[in-house]
């Protein structure tokens, strides 16, 4: 084979690769690279959508970090959600996954029932939960009162709104259940049998056989859970709107993050700054903070060693 | 293949560059009112009403206009909130409206300052209308910003006190309270507790008790929101401190925040038949004029009394005033049919017969001086209270600002924390809030 | 019960009526009862919300404001009332358009990309894969300001769903990732064999790989369909200003706004938004569960 044909072959193969990748290459440029660069540009301007953008240096950045009244509450809420909601979801998902592997009768029905809520469209599921948990006449509080408890007011109480959202998230734990179920079934049987021969208790078998085997999946669930929390938008927004009784039609102002900013998240303040206050500069800064956070955790997923998603060869 | 790919890459780069440039220099706000108002045309009108009876009243109003202006057809789109309006006006384009009506006066500052709505002064001049002779001053205040009259009032809302006459009789109260010190005694007297809750509450003072927000309480103390330099005045004007501490005292007197909040959660929806005033859960309610019609529709059994809200003891001379607000109407600066649009706005906001008929249909207070005096108004006698409040010289409104009313939320936040006891030093809370308001507004200027 | 015991070989072996066997059997039975009680408790947690939603959707308006859990009169007309709501059918049509067209575009545009990432060897492959994952993890709000300005101001497409549909013709990161994971599981021998037979890359992809990748494609299509069906943020940004372009998820929220107190109607509408998703799931359960598992599998 002459060097010429080799080179042309290589070039053909490069062209072929580019051809196959082309839809995504365009998509990457138009819907990722360009808007990201543009967002960086907007973060240094004052722009309201009407008057042309004006360069204003670091104004937006200092405003967001030192003066924007919604930024820190949103970040604190995100931290709460990561610590409580993500953790509980992983534990609960693992528990349900374990349970389903132990259930011998009607497994298919149980699995379907456990999985269904995950499919409920978020707006519909949130509406349903605001209704179920409504303090006056909601079925949950009605039942809690039957058993003599004095129930909280859930979505209208700043201390209980995030726990109420957590309940909603636990209800939709089906995705984690399926992932854990698959992982649990992959644990080699021999290891359990060996442990049993050694006289290990159920807890010890879980601790020393199950957990080490599924730990990469647990980590995967945690990290993707954190990333999903960064994107948490529809549920808290719809819950706040419905619970406040203010859907924006009555002329009263909607308090973002109702009650008392307790359900604010970063994506919501991007919307609030950009599409309610029409301060695109501030929105761009929050967007970039959100980007940085999401990418830190994405990088965790893709680490070359111990990474959870194998990226290359 | 190779050429095509390279071309794609080049096209991609070019598109990206163009859009970056283009998005950096859009946003023209120049008005181009050179369309012929007599030409055949179709206008798009957006409004916020969603209840069937209100939608119907709006439709009838438009039909009257179309009958008077045969060349103009109007396409009506209802249930439009300010967020959607703001966004659509920025996008412009084919689906954007020509004429917009919004419930909330809080966005007026934004509509005017950004040029989303055109200044109506030239149109008023062209049509020989002196707005000061057509509208009362507070209504002109909330429809303009720094001299830019970018909207006009389309009916107005006046806030007053509703009371349950039967409950009053039972408690031996003969007259609605005129001062706040009378008010808390009356509220206390009307309150009947039951266990750790209430059988009947005199008044729900909490800021989340529907219309009982700071911006609706405050006018009774004659507040000044901004000083001459446009800086927030809430920490300097004692009106705010007095009002917020009065409300807190009321909360404590009537059972304390946690108990009231728990009771509040048993209330039906503000816009539904099970409103706590309708059901007798509360005996008095601060509300706008529309409550009267809603209560009647809900079929309440007791006799309803209406009165102006009380005033502080030392300002008894001002009794009779109240908070004014209302729906506003403006012309989108992106509209290509501004002269035709003006015909519609002019008709709906200034034509006495139109305003009277619409007021009768939607049961809001008429917004022009002539319409307020009109004998054709078909309203219940208790409605007169609100017409009087609307004409009271000391009635006031909260000023428009560039932040679209975010300053109300910042102030309300102080109130919420103070009523619940989370904030104890009110003055420092107000000072911080004032600072926040100034920073937020400076950010948007 | 017999079926259960069948699955426990230890128990089955000990059919002899020894005390030890009896204890073992009792232990197994207790274990079965414990596990299934837990299972039923969990099932109640997952199912009761649906039950209450459906029950409420059949109540009269007056009754939703009481503490009753079960309807006293069964108001089936609530559903026809929802259907008669102006716009409800339009929302349906728009959602189907967004989800249907979007899904087809996504699948068609993502397959070649996923194939290249899974089976080709090229410089920048690792980087491309990292970028795909980064795009997948990117919260849509991050780039919304320039994207909105681009669609609304440059292309005058605000008030339509096109800004949500068109990008799907350029590959969706999640679909690419999922398909690539699936294609990795297809042994290279099949591809090599096709090449030996003289197939070009495109033909290999179409004739050999695609038929084998059907389950993966089905999973991707389902995910994409559900994504579009459930999307709230996209329609909120691009379609909110034009009710004729609203989707079910967005319309449902505004439905609540317009029917402040009518929880019965709101819940009926909620049921009607949830039901199609659940129906689709029943028909395509296997593909779906496989897809979820795939997201967690190491490549």
State the end-to-end CA separation of chain C.
41 Å
CATH topology of the largest domain in chain B: D-Maltodextrin-Binding Protein, domain 2
CATH class placement of the largest domain in chain B = Alpha Beta
Q: Tell me how many strands of chain B there are.
A: 9
The figure for the number of domains of chain C is: 2
- By helix and strand content of chain C, what is the structural category? mainly alpha
The average pLDDT score of chain C comes to 86
Describe this structure in words.
The complex is a heterotrimer of chains A (313), B (445) and C (299). Chain A has 313 residues and is mainly alpha-helical. Chain A has helices spanning 3-42, 59-67, 71-102, 107-119, 122-132, 139-146, 161-171, 174-186, 189-197, 202-230, 234-243, 266-276, 280-302, and strands spanning 45-46, 54-55. Chain A has 2 domains: 1-56, no CATH class; 70-304, MetI-like fold (Orthogonal Bundle), CATH 1.10.3720.10. Chain A contains 13 helices and 2 strands, in the order H-E-E-H-H-H-H-H-H-H-H-H-H-H-H. Chain A has a two-stranded antiparallel sheet with strand order 1-2. The longest helix of chain A has 40 residues, at 3-42. With 445 residues, chain B is of the alpha/beta class. Chain B folds into 2 domains: 41-157 and 324-391, D-Maltodextrin-Binding Protein, domain 2; 159-323 and 400-444, 3-Layer(aba) Sandwich (D-Maltodextrin-Binding Protein, domain 2). In chain B, 45% of the residues lie in helices and 13% in strands. Chain B has 20 helices and 9 strands. Chain B has helices at 2-23, 52-68, 82-91, 108-113, 121-126, 131-134, 137-143, 165-170, 180-190, 214-217, 238-253, 257-264, 276-279, 290-297, 338-350, 352-362, 369-373, 384-391, 406-419, 426-444; strands at residues 41-46, 72-77, 99-102, 152-164, 192-194, 197-203, 282-288, 304-307, 324-331. In chain B, strands 1, 2, 3, 4, 5, 6, 7, 8 and 9 form a 9-stranded mixed beta sheet that branches. The radius of gyration of chain B is 24 Å and the shape is globular. The model of chain B is unreliable at 1-31 (pLDDT under 50). Chain C is 74% helix and 0% strand. Chain C folds into 2 domains: 2-57, no CATH class; 81-296, MetI-like (MetI-like fold, Orthogonal Bundle), CATH 1.10.3720. With 299 residues, chain C is mainly alpha-helical. In chain C, helix 5 packs across helix 16 (263-283) and helix 13 (214-230) packs across helix 17 (285-296). Chain C is built from 17 helices and no strands. Chain A: InterPro entries: ABC_transporter_permease (IPR051393), MetI-like (IPR000515), MetI-like_sf (IPR035906). Chain A: This is Sugar ABC transporter permease.
């Amino acid at each position: 084979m002459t060097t010429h044909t080799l080179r042309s072959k290589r070039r053909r193969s490069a062209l072929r690769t580019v051809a196959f990748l082309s839809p995504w290459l365009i998509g990457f440029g138009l819907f990722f690279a360009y808007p990201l660069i543009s967002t960086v540009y907007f973060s240094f301007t004052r722009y309201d959508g009407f008057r042309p953008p004006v360069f204003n240096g670091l104004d937006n950045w200092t405003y967001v970090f030192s003066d924007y009244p919604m930024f820190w509450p949103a970040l604190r809420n995100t931290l709460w959600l990561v610590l409580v909601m993500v953790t509980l979801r992983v534990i609960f998902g693992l528990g349900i996954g374990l349970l389903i592997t132990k259930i011998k009768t009607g497994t298919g029905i149980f699995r379907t029932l456990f999985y269904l809520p995950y499919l409920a469209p978020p707006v519909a599921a949130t509406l349903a939960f605001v209704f179920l948990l409504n303090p006056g006449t909601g079925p949950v509080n009605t039942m809690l009162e039957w058993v003599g408890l004095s129930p909280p007011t859930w979505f209208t109480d700043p201390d209980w709104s995030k726990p109420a959202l957590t309940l909603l998230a636990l209800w939709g734990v089906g995705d984690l259940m399926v992932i854990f179920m698959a992982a649990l079934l992959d644990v080699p049987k021999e290891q359990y049998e060996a442990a049993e021969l050694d006289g290990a208790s159920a807890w010890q078998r879980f601790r020393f056989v199950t957990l080490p085997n599924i730990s990469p999946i647990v980590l995967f669930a945690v990290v993707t859970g954190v990333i999903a929390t960064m994107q948490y938008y529809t549920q808290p927004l719809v819950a706040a709107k419905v619970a406040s009784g203010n859907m924006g039609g009555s002329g009263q102002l909607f308090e973002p993050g109702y009650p008392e900013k307790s359900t604010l998240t970063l994506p919501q303040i991007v919307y609030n700054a950009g599409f309610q206050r029409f301060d695109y500069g501030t929105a761009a800064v929050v967007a970039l903070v959100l980007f940085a956070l999401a990418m830190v955790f994405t990088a965790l997923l893709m680490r070359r060693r111990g990474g959870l998603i194998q990226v290359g060869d | 293949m190779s050429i095509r790919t390279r071309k794609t890459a080049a096209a991609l780069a070019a598109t990206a560059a163009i859009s970056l440039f283009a998005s950096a220099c859009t946003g023209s706000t120049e008005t181009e009112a050179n369309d012929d108002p007599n030409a055949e045309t179709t206008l798009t009108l957006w409004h916020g009403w969603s209840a069937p009876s209100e939608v119907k009243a709006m439709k009838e109003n438009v039909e009257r206009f179309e009958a008077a202006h045969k060349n103009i057809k109007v396409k009506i789109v209802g249930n439009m909130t300010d967020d959607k309006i703001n966004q659509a006006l920025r996008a412009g384009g084919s689906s954007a409206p020509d004429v917009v009506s919004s419930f909330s006066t809080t966005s007026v500052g934004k509509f005017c300052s950004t040029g989303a709505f055109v200044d109506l002064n030239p149109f008023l001049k062209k049509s020989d209308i002196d707005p000061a002779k057509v509208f009362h001053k507070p209504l002109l205040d909330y429809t303009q910003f720094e001299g830019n009259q970018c909207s006009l009032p389309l009916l107005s809302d006046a806030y007053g006190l509703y009371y349950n006459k039967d409950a009053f009789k039972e408690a031996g109260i003969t007259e609605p309270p005129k001062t706040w010190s009378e008010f808390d005694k009356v509220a206390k007297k009307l309150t009947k507790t039951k266990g750790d809750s209430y059988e009947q509450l005199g008044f729900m003072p909490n800021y989340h008790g529907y219309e009982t927000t700071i911006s609706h309480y405050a006018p009774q103390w004659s507040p000044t929101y901004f000083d001459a330099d446009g800086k927030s005045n809430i920490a300097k004007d004692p009106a705010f401190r007095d009002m917020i501490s009065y409300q807190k005292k009321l909360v404590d007197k009537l059972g304390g925040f946690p108990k009231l909040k728990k009771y509040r959660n048993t209330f039906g929806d503000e816009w539904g038949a099970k409103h706590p005033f309708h059901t007798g859960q509360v005996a008095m309610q601060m509300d706008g004029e529309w409550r009267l019609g809603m209560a009647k529709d809900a079929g309440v059994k007791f006799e309803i009394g209406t009165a102006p809200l009380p005033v502080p003891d030392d300002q008894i001379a001002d009794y009779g005033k109240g908070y004014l607000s209302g729906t506003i109407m403006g012309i989108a600066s992106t509209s290509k049919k501004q002269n035709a649009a003006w015909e519609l706005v002019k008709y709906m906001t200034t034509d006495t017969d139109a305003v009277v008929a619409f007021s009768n249909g939607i049961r809001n207070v008429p917004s022009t001086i002539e319409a307020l005096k009109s004998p054709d108004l078909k309203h219940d006698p208790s409605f007169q209270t609100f017409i009087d409040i609307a004409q009271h010289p000391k009635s006031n409104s909260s000023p428009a600002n560039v932040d679209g009313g975010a300053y109300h939320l910042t102030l309300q936040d102080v109130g919420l924390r103070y009523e619940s006891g989370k904030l104890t030093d009110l003055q420092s809370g107000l000072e911080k809030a004032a600072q926040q308001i100034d920073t937020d507004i400076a950010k948007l200027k | 019960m017999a079926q259960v015991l069948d699955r426990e070989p230890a128990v089955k072996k000990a059919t002899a009526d020894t005390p030890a066997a009896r204890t073992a059997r009792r232990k197994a039975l207790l274990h079965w009862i414990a596990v299934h009680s837990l299972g039923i408790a969990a099932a109640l947690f997952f199912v009761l919300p649906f039950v209450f939603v459906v029950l409420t959707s059949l109540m009269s308006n007056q009754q939703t404001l009481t503490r009753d859990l079960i309807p006293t009169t069964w108001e089936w007309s609530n559903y026809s009332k929802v259907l008669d709501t102006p716009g409800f059918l339009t929302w349906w049509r728009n959602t189907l358009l967004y989800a249907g067209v979007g899904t087809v575009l996504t699948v068609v545009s993502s397959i070649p990309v996923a194939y290249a990432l899974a089976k080709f060897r090229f410089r920048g492959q690792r980087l491309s894969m990292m970028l795909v994952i980064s795009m997948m993890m990117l919260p849509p709000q991050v780039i919304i300001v320039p994207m909105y300005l681009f669609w609304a101001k440059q292309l005058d497409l605000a008030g339509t769903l096109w800004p949500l549909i068109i990008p799907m013709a350029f590959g969706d990161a999640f679909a690419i990732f999922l398909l690539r994971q699936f294609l990795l599981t297809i042994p290279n021998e099949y591809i090599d064999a096709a090449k030996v037979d003289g197939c070009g890359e495109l033909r290999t992809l179409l004739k050999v790989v695609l038929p084998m990748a059907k389950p993966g494609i089905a999973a991707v299509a389902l995910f994409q369909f559900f994504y579009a069906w459930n999307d709230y943020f996209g329609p909120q940004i691009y379609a909110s200003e034009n009710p004729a372009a609203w989707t079910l998820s967005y319309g449902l929220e505004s439905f609540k706004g317009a029917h402040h107190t009518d929880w019965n109607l709101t819940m009926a509408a909620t049921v009607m938004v949830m039901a199609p998703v659940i129906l689709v799931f029943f028909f395509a359960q296997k593909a779906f569960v496989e897809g979820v598992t795939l997201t967690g599998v190491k490549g």
